[in-house]
Amino acid sequence: MAEGAGGTPEPIGRLIDEFHRLPGIGPKSAQRLAYHILRVPERDALALAEAIGDVKRRIIFCSSCLNITESDPCSFCQDQRRDRTIICVVEQPLDILAIERSGSFRGLYHVLHGLLNPMDGVGPEDLHIRELVERVRAGEVTEIIMATNPSLEGEATAMYVQRLLAPAGVRVTRLARGLPSGADLEYADDITLARALEGRQEL
Question: What is the pTM of this model?
Fold first, then answer.
């Protein structure tokens, strides 16, 4: 059996490396996860592997809003009861779940899949901003709600989108300051999110 540095068997070392590549997983956490997988029954480990494979095989991005979905268009874009003149722009699909829990929004969504961050090399071309502009140019949209997180990157992204959409004459608003500075949208409570939506302000 091939062994890596420190006598770690190669399959374990590879699993640790793969876990370490996940966001928020440091070296120690990666080791704990790998040894946990080693200890659980084989059926549990295979169920995890199957679930990961299933996500990669079956989950796609909605061609309209870029949300994750099993069918295209997604359930939000298909729902004719939703207000098609308002689009709420979020960073990640998880943010949609948070806003839906608040019960205060009945429009459509658009997922950027990130925020502008020049320090990390993330520019406008790395986000789904072009698709948002195309949706606005289609003519039905009258308001864009920028629901990016209240961080430096979230503010910069909101201002960039506002400048980009200014020629289209569409109203661009920002969530009210009920959200604490630097907090992630997905962790905000339902009441705070509802008030932030209701008190949104022009950019």
Answer: 0.76
